Amino acid sequence: MKQGRIVLNQQARRVTALADGKLLLDNGNPLADSPQWLAPASGTVYGVALNHRSLLEQLEADFQQPPYQKAPATPVLFIKPRNTHAGHGSAIALPTQAGKVFAGGALGVVLGKVASKVAVEQALEVVAGYTVVNEISLEETSFYRPAVKAKCRDGFCPMGPWQVDAAAIDPLNVEIRSYLNGELAETHHSRDWLRSVPQLIAALSQFMTLQPGDVIIPATPLRQLEIRPGDTVAVEIAGIGRLENRLIAEESAQ
């Protein structure tokens, strides 16, 4: 089943996709108009840096430099706070004076249960479903400590439009496709992740309790898809859906 969240009469409402593509409101009534989409989950979004093989290989020489002289041995985390969350179809404002901005097509793992000190073998039992994420970021200079200024700008984490049931997706076999202005620009696969979704849930829940509605972004690839105001960027995962957003200059959004 595919579920999403929309704004209707200034209230957040749940919608379900019917087999014919029509939308059904949470009160059972059909929705005739094109909705304003919200992110399908409203919890805390945790991203995992350096979990994609392409990124780690690209930075291998940098990791040998002082002071660390080795790649991180445990997951490097960052947070996409509530101000970054945006829905399908919303315009994302890009700062034109802050340097390069990159799209980051990714899977979003939506938690459905409280998760504390979960074993790898039971980790998928706490997953409610999956969604599509675009983890937008300014160009990064430190992967040991992802910068708040690069990751946490308003609207830099669009998600959706759908959350599909956990049983519908195998998180060990997911292909993420990113499009720029309608053209396929990047493809990457979960087989290139260094740690799997169950391993990440187990690792994170060892030191903090994850809540229903929280989202984990398991990995983003080497940043190559630069985006600019005027572009349209889309991220697509088979079985979940297509997340599309228009990019505008921050100055024009004020």
Task: Give a concise summary.
With 254 residues, this protein is mainly beta.
Q: What can you tell me about this protein's structure?
A:
The protein has 254 residues and is mostly beta strands. It has two domains: 1-38; 39-249, Fumarylacetoacetase-like, C-terminal domain (Fumarylacetoacetate hydrolase, domain 2, Alpha-Beta Complex), CATH 3.90.850. It has four helices and 20 strands. Strands 1, 2, 3, 4, 5, 6, 7, 11, 12, 15 and 18 form an eleven-stranded mixed sheet that branches. Strand 2 and strand 3 (23-25) form a beta hairpin. The radius of gyration is 18 Å and the shape is globular. The mean pLDDT is 91.
Estimate the helix proportion, in percent.
under 10%
Superfamily at the CATH H level of the largest domain?
Fumarylacetoacetase-like, C-terminal domain
Structural class: mainly beta
Multimeric organization = single chain
Could you name the CATH class of the largest domain? Alpha Beta
**Proportion in β-strands:** 35-45%
Average pLDDT level: 91
GO molecular function: 5-carboxymethyl-2-hydroxymuconate delta-isomerase activity; 5-oxopent-3-ene-1,2,5-tricarboxylate decarboxylase activity; metal ion binding
InterPro entries: Fumarylacetoacetase-like_C, Fumarylacetoacetase_C_sf, HPA_isomer/decarb_N
Protein name: 5-carboxymethyl-2-oxo-hex-3- ene-1,7-dioate decarboxylase
Domain Fumarylacetoacetase-like C-terminal: 44-247
